[in-house]
């Protein structure tokens, strides 16, 4: 029997696991409770979801109603989502980092009837705007002792803790059980499963309408492309479930395949949790992988002498071994011996920091710098890259485990068409599918468009915006520039990011920024240069490295001047900028830069929750500094 049911609905996945893959007392979810990792079975998950669903029906919630979640990754997220999905409601997950104003907009735009609040900070955020949200009927804090926050408030929506809600649901479950079963079985694949609001780099967030079929078909074909995921795998989840990447690639994949999900305590404790849980699969974003790469390189080379020599020798052996294997050849006996020695002395120690059991990591959300992917490959850790958008459920392409092409985002998934369209003429350069794949195929560059089961139903209550991105032939226009290289999709940048200098040269910032991010001194970089004679940049140095090299204390980073004026630090950053500029065309090279004291942040509205720069916001906010870079002398060439 197939490990995924043919019903193509989200609630059918987990019940199929219990019916055909694991007994109901098998562990499904794992979380840290005090000093102990607590295991939660499929039975407890489904029983809790049933109780929550019964409470919703008792309070008058109906199929199609939108129910919101403002919560970090946790078992409670899963209980709540499974409950609402099985009675045909719509999951509206809100990024915990969004402002009160953005939260209010999303709750009103979606017409959310309930909201789950994950901690006191998020609960207080909801309380501040709750009376401005006309459709909101219940606020549900996950934690206890929440009454102290509501004692002096007059709220139009009722407040009930998740624990008491579950108990009330259990009391009325027998009465509502037939309705829950009937609703679950009546859900159609075309029914709406979730509204995921885009992060809005250029305007007001839009609710992306994703159906049950969008999610389940995406999971099915991704598992076809990565068949080594099996029912005994253990995923460690830390990327936000409010984002479609983690929702599909961890949560829904595990619901479909019967894998366990362990929830990391926080990003700060991720490394510790990896060592404790020892995951076999994990999803990550490029910036995390870059940081692991930087720390490993620093730890390996900092001692100098023989230790650094062994580290660099091992990386070189790993590189040679990997390249021969990827070419489909078998390494010779002497190289194999050297590789085993390199693994024992260096690679195994780095892998042990991840728990030592990782089969692979899946990277998504942004382009992974080629050198970072190769570094992990040299260690014997597979990094599979995927590509897609919220509007594409999200996966459009993903690396095949046995066919790695670094710097690309893999092969087109089954069941969809991906085209490259000339930006100016709109003529198709090529249209590729999973079955037309050829390892030698290459195409010219253009906008990436897609048609098929992964494409969203549209933007919630925004038909004009929907029509502007889905053309009459059903092609969704991603706004990304790319091409096919060695049969795989390769991303260049976003169309809206493209800079055109004063001489008409097109410059895509992302690959240029990734070149400079090879420097261990640089944490973030933002390129400027549209309609200008040359490229400049705002550079954020690595705080940790700055403190080590210059002996800086915390008060240095709290100074009111947003930009660092110390010439020694500026020159120190400039050394790597000048060195790395040699890898770029002359018109792509940074000619002047400013060193920003603190990183661009979500809280300041400078980047999105998925860490994409809000170009217009940054350019407007730092307009005066940008003009100084073009008025002053050139500092880097």
UniProtKB/TrEMBL annotation:
Taxonomy, superkingdom: Bacteria
Any one GO molecular-function label of the UniProt entry: long-chain fatty acid-CoA ligase activity
Taxonomic classification: Bacteria, Pseudomonadati, Bacteroidota, Sphingobacteriia, Sphingobacteriales
Example of a GO cellular component annotation carried by this entry: membrane
Coiled-coil intervals, chain numbering: none
Species assigned in the record: Hufsiella ginkgonis
CDD domains: VL_LC_FACS_like (cd05907)
Protein name: AMP-binding protein
Keyword ATP-binding: yes
Residue ranges of every copy of the AMP-dependent synthetase/ligase domain listed in the record: 20-460
InterPro entries, per database record: AMP-binding_CS, AMP-dep_synth/lig_dom, ANL_N_sf
Signal sequence, start to end: none
Keywords carried by this UniProt record: ATP-binding, Nucleotide-binding
């Amino acid at each position: 029997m197939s490990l995924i049911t043919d019903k193509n609905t989200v609630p059918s996945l987990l019940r199929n696991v219990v019916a055909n893959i694991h007994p109901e007392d098998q562990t499904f979810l794992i979380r840290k409770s005090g000093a102990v990792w607590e295991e939660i079975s499929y039975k407890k998950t489904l029983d809790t979801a049933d109780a929550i669903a019964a409470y919703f029906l008792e309070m008058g919630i109906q199929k199609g109603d939108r129910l919101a979640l403002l919560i970090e990754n946790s078992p409670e997220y899963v209980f709540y989502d499974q409950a609402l999905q099985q009675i045909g409601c719509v999951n509206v997950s809100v990024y915990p980092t969004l402002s009160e104003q953005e939260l209010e907009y999303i709750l009103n735009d979606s017409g959310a009837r309930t909201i789950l609040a994950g901690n006191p900070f998020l609960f207080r955020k909801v309380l501040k705007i709750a009376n401005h949200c006309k459709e909101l009927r219940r606020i549900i804090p996950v934690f206890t002792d929440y009454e102290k926050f509501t004692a002096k408030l007059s709220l139009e929506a009722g407040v009930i803790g998740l624990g008491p809600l579950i108990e009330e649901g259990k009391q009325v479950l027998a009465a509502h059980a037939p309705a829950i079963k009937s609703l679950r079985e009546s859900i159609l694949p075309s029914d709406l499963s979730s509204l995921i609001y885009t992060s809005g780099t250029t305007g007001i967030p839009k609710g992306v309408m994703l159906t049950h079929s969008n999610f389940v078909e995406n999971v099915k074909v991704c598992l076809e492309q990565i068949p080594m995921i099996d029912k005994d795998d253990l995923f460690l989840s830390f990327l936000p479930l409010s984002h479609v990447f983690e929702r599909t690639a961890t949560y829904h994949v595990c619901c479909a395949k019967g894998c366990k999900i362990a929830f990391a305590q926080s990003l700060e404790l991720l490394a510790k949790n990896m060592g404790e849980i020892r995951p076999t699969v994990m999803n990550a974003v490029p910036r995390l992988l870059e940081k692991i790469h930087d720390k490993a390189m620093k730890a390996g080379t900092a001692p100098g002498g023989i230790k650094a020599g062994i580290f660099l020798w091992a990386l070189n052996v790993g590189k040679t071994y990997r390249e021969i294997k990827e070419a489909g050849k078998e390494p010779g006996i002497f190289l194999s011996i050297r590789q085993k020695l390199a693994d024992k002395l260096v690679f195994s120690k780095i892998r042990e920091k991840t728990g030592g059991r990782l089969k692979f990591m899946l990277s998504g959300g942004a382009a992974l710098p080629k050198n970072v992917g190769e570094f992990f490959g040299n260690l014997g850790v597979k990094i599979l890259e995927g590509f897609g958008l919220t509007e594409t459920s999200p996966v459009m392409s993903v690396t095949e485990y046995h066919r790695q092409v670094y710097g690309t985002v893999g092969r087109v998934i089954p069941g969809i068409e991906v085209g490259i369209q000339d930006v100016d003429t709109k003529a198709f350069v090529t249209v590729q599918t999973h079955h037309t794949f050829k390892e030698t195929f290459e195409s010219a560059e253009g906008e990436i468009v897609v048609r098929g089961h992964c494409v969203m139903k549209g933007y919630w209550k925004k038909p004009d915006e929907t029509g502007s991105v889905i053309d009459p032939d059903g092609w969704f226009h991603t706004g990304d520039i790319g091409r096919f290289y060695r049969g795989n999709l390769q991303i260049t940048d976003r169309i809206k990011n493209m800079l055109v200098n004063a001489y008409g040269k097109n410059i895509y910032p992302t690959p240029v920024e990734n070149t400079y991010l090879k420097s261990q001194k640089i944490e973030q970089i933002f390129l400027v240069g549209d309609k200008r004679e040359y490229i400049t940049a705002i550079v954020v140095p690595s705080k940790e490295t700055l403190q080590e090299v210059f002996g800086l204390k915390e008060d240095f980073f709290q100074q009111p001047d947003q930009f660092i004026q110390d010439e020694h630090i500026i020159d120190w950053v400039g050394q790597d900028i000048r060195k790395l500029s040699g890898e770029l065309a002359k018109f792509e090279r940074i000619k002047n830069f400013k060193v920003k004291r603190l990183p661009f942040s979500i809280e300041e509205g400078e980047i999105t929750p998925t860490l994409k720069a809000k170009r217009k916001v940054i350019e407007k906010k730092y307009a005066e500094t940008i003009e100084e870079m073009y008025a002053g002398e050139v500092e880097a060439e």
